[in-house]
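Input (structure):
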């Protein structure tokens, strides 16, 4: 005699099937998202590279021109123009150059101190030399500016007996 399934057993089987189908569908979605993410990262910079290709072409032409031309001024102007176009292209994608000025206060978020030197006129902690520009991508610093920072501030001449004696001794030698 065949066992008759009751309604609750059939409903339970149906819910188990649904749960398995949803679990499989969720797993397929995870795999699809992972593939899309990998594909996105693989080609995320495609538009940036397309914009940079003319700059690469111009630099290659400049190298060829160096071999053939004696007009250094024209070559220099071509390289300057290529650099300007390159910087504009980078700015189009959110990259911005920044260069501190001499006398600006040192900010560790924007600057990296390569050296610290005394300076006769600058206050302590101010920038006295710039080695390299910094760069920001949107609001994030991706390369701080490399600088030399004033250490100790302006030297004050103090006339004490000791310093006068040292100066006299140095003059006699």
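Output (sequence):
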């Amino acid at each position: 005699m065949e066992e008759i399934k009751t309604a609750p057993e059939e409903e339970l089987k149906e819910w188990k099937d649904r749960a398995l189908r949803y679990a499989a569908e969720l797993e397929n979605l995870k795999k699809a998202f992972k593939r899309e993410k990998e594909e996105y990262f693989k080609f995320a910079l495609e538009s940036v590279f397309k914009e940079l290709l003319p700059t690469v072409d111009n630099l290659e032409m400049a190298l060829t021109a160096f071999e053939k031309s004696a007009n250094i001024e024209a070559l220099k102007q071509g390289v300057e123009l290529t650099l300007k176009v390159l910087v504009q292209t980078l700015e189009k994608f959110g990259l911005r150059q920044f260069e501190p000025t001499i006398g600006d206060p040192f900010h560790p978020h924007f600057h990296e101190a390569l050296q610290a030197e005394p300076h006769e006129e600058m206050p302590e902690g101010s920038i006295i030399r710039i080695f390299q520009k910094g760069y920001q991508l949107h609001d994030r610093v991706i390369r701080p500016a490399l600088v030399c920072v004033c250490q100790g501030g302006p030297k004050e001449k103090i006339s004490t007996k000791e310093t006068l004696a040292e100066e006299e001794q140095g003059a006699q030698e």
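Notes: The radius of gyration is 34 Å. Confidence is low (pLDDT under 50) at residues 157-161.
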